[in-house]
Amino acid sequence: MYIIIIGGGDLGSSLAREFLANNHEVLIIEKDVARCEQLKDELGSISLCSMGSEIATLTKAGIARADMLIAVTSEDDDNLTPCEIAKRKFNVPKVIAKVNNPKNEHIFVKLGIDCTANGVGPVLENIKVLTGIFPLARLLSFKEMESELVLVKVHNSSLVSKSLEDLPLPAGAVVTLLIRQGEGPKIPTPETVLQAEDQLVCLIPSESEESVQAIFASNQ
User: Fold this and answer.
1) Of 76, 101, 118, which residue is a domain's last?
2) Quick check: 147 and 199 in contact, CB under 8 A?
3) Half-sphere exposure of 37 (CA within 13 A, CB side)
4) Tens of pLDDT along 97-154?
């Protein structure tokens, strides 16, 4: 895949490393000259020093053949514009944006951005779960699939000692990961028996969020 990343900060460069390690072609567009030089030293000649919100820059970057565009700058305007261009003018198959201000997320959604992630949301949602008051945290939204990646926590409740296959999860919900204290994360099976304080990462239909939350909240 050919992936264009807008923003060469810590997040952008980390993503680039991951993609390169998996044999994907990557180009980072970064407007800061000094940072571009750092990227060149760290990752090689995979950066373009320019404004990622300009059509001329994106054209030069080869957006017409891009399989994916990811915008992860610290400014929502600098993320929104290239995403809109990629989506509407060049029909890039997958467009992902970091949303710095959660209040702006509806704008990205309205423009049809495939997936949005904000820097405040995941931290806030995880804290909510850690308090023990809120049983569910939203980690990521997949707009095109109308799905949510969520984290739920099993407190001391009637859910303890139940197997995953016995949970009354809604149709389409999939438990993808089990995080258990004292053990490494692992992929559970339907026979996996839940313990107190287990955390489950689940992919669920967006409309089922309330019902999933109710399953865990009502059994605390």
Assistant:
1) 118
2) no
3) 2
4) 888 887 888 888 888 786 666 665 665 666 566 556 578 888 887 877 889 999 998 8
